[in-house]
């Protein structure tokens, strides 16, 4: 006899413990369940350990959106609701993320759970269509996320596959031929390394030795940088968390490197500018800074982030894209007329995107969701920081899915 997935009486979007800035309207709830007039949104992410800053960025984006949604009022099928964020710390461990997601769905009635790392997302995809269904808010640019064929996945950021060819093309416009490899040694970083190397060779360039290092454990980059520069590269591929990426850039300039940098999407220009002289970042290509979008809600979120979270760090796309995604999910609940039926919420996403208030349009707000479940804006842009320190933006074509 077929097993019928558990139904919920109410929904919560969940996140790990109430750490960092607490937004009054979106404070973490207690253990277990939710009130009948509460929509719970779940979040499992790294809120302690080496990736805690990244996990906190995701959490902040969700919190800020929930606070704004509550201020505006949320009504689904004629009933008013208060949206609540519940969070669990997974320390970037895939198995813990999957366990957290199931707990949020079963114990806290979360119809939607956000996870911001590929390993955790793929682990959760193995169980979100089984005993208890929940929509997975997947924050990872790994294209494998939508290749799984999981019908209850909503992939949030652009696929990193979108960036590789245009990044290579831009930096090969001159006479650059030799590519040095100095990315992070994580699985994600090595996928980037492989794709960039393949594309560089395809365009007729020479790929030099691979000097990848673990950006999360190495603190002295002088040796890896020196080995990379010994091959006299024209371009160096770098990327991992923003702070160590900036330190590698600084070390390379210190050792006399005056070539280009190809920066993977994990590192953000606006954050790297906080850790090194911005001039060191000249002649580099990477992700467009969140502050430089001109969407209707961009400046409001920049100001809100400074007011509610911190003035010490810039708004990044991790915050902004999850801010948008939370608003899209609640809009889908409105369109579906349910806060508990995950499949109905997923099916309502295409229509819901067009109904989200302009206030939540911040960084290339999605114009579609693909059949595979990927939120996309077809006007995606990347940023090239010129040798003079000015940002130029170039269009990015996105692959078919």
From TrEMBL:
Keywords in alphabetical order: Signal
Coiled-coil ranges per UniProt: none
Residues in the signal sequence: 1-26
Domain Leucine-binding protein residues, every copy: 38-360
InterPro entries referenced in this protein's UniProt entry, alphabetically: BCAA_transport, Leu-bd, Peripla_BP_I
Annotated Gene3D superfamilies: 3.40.50.2300
Entry similarity comment: Belongs to the leucine-binding protein family.
Protein name: Amino acid/amide ABC transporter substrate-binding protein, HAAT family (TC 3.A.1.4.-)
